[in-house]
Each structure stands twice: as C-alpha cells, then as structure tokens.
Write a structure and sequence with these properties.
Elements: E1 4-7, H1 17-44, H2 51-79, E2 97-100, H3 101-134, H4 139-142, H5 145-170, E3 179-180, H6 187-193, H7 198-235, H8 240-244, H9 247-269, H10 275-303, H11 305-318
Parallel strand pairs: 1-3
Antiparallel strand pairs: 1-2
Helix pairs in contact: 1-2, 1-10, 1-11, 2-3, 2-10, 3-5, 3-7, 3-9, 5-7, 9-10, 10-11
Length: 319
Amino acid sequence: MNSSVVLAGFQQLTPVRWLLVPLFFCVWIFILLSDSLIVFVIITRRILHKPMFIFIAAVLANSFTASCTIFPKLLWDLGSGPVSGPVSGPVSGPGMVRVPLSSCLAQAFWLHFIGSSSFMLLGAMSLDRLLSITRPLHYAVLMSARRVVCLLLFCWLFPLLLIGFMMALLIQLPLCRDVVQRLYCDPYTVTSLSCAGGAAQIAVLYGSVAMVLGLFVPAGFVMFSYAHILWVCVFRSFSRRALHTCVPHIAVFLNYVLSCAFDLLHRRISSTQGHSVQLVATVASLIMVVIPTVFNPLVYGLKVSEIHRQLRALLRQMR
C-alpha cells in the first residue's frame, strides 16, 4: 500500500520550468499584494463597511488563502529535481513529483474548502444584490450586520463540515497505485488511485453529493438571483446603475464556473495516454490554478467604482 502520491503533470512543464518559475512567482506576488491591498482598503475605509464590500473582502481572503496553498508548492515542485524511488503508474521519467499522502490530503482539503466557500460567498453576494435592488426600502433590515455575520459563518462552516467529512472518508482508503497526471492534489486524485472497492465507491458518491451541495446549488442560486435582477431591471424600468453594480460579481462568478469546467475537463482527459492529450490536461490544470486568483482582484479593484476610488485615494496618500 502506497503512502505517497506522484504528480506526473510536471513532466509537461519540465522543459520550460526556467520560464515558469519566475513567471509564477511574479503572479503570486501580484495576487498577495492586490488581494491584501483591497481587503485592507475595505477594512479601513468606513464608507466601504457595507454588506457587498464585506462579501468581496471575504472572497478575496479566500483567493489569498488559495494562492498560498497552491503557489509555494507549485514553485518548489517546478524547481525541484525528478522523483526519487520506483513508481507504480503507467508513466515514468523526469519531472514527476512525489508528495506524502498526508500533504496531498491537506492540499485537497484546503482547495475544495476554499472553492466551495467561494461559491457560497458568491451566492450570499447575489442575495445581497437581489435584496438591494428588489427590496430597497427593507434592505437595511434584511441585510443587517448580524445577518451578514451569520451568512459569512455559514459560507465558511458548512463547507468546512462538508469537505471535512469527505477527508475522513478519503484518509481510510488504501492506495494501490501512486501516479496521477496532476499538478496538485484533490479528492479525485485519492479515489482514482484507491483499490478499496466499496469504500472508494462510497467516497466517490459522497464527493458527488458534496459537489452538488457546495458548488451546483450555490451556482444555481446565483444564476436565479441575477436572472431575477435582470428581469426586474428590464421590465420594471429600474436604473442601469443598479444593474451595473452586478456586473463585476457576474464576471467573477463566470470566472469560477469556467475554471471548474476546465478542472472537470482535466479529470476526464488526465487518464488518457498521449503527449498532446497530457499537455492539454496540464494546461487545463494551470488555468484552474492561475486564472481565478488573478482575475478576482483585477475585477474588484478596477470595476467596482467605490473600491477603485478608495484605492486611488489611498495610493495618493502613500505618495
């Protein structure tokens, strides 16, 4: 039984790792600085102490945490040498990275917890916009500070329990193989390598339920909320400014949806042999890692006018 996992996705990146290491390092520094700057502005500027901006700060805090979960390990693995020791999978060669199973499970937990909580935060943000536009006279009561705190706790605690129970199932699965065509670990990585039979099937089934509850249900609520907002703004002659406040949130939501779609594409083709297919799988996983974390601060920092004005004011003070 294996106690480690070999990430073979790095094989495709080994020839250009001299370019990718400084590139990803600069991307990571940009994410850290931009996320922390926007969160700092939201916390310190009283004018931004509103539910919408609080949810934006929570989403960016998740993005900050996700980057710290992925990029340091990605940079280290890109810069390290080939895997040591025999492997039991169908691929071999330089550029593969061996990861202890405990570290693999920890990374899988954090990535899925952050992903699920981000979708739920986007759902809470869509609820905030829905109430703000359709119930403006009762908005202050419906989105009180206490209810905002309760929504934040729910968006973090529910995924914590959901993904935590999944990890409790995965940690008991024995691994009969150790090679997977990935750049990072997720629950699918462990179940695909397991030979536990019925226990693995239960873990897969629960993983599907967790995906529905943590991703598809919040995504469905977001689509319903913004569709209702669009209907209200079009057929009830609401101002375009009300609809304009939703555009950055819709852009971030679509960014998350497309990233998840790339991840699902990666899962379907990562077990297929062939250099070109494996290269597509690796590119898909890179898109899943890089695009969401870079896109979020750009949208919220440049397209949300209130945040943009406060950022410019802060930069002028710093000068």
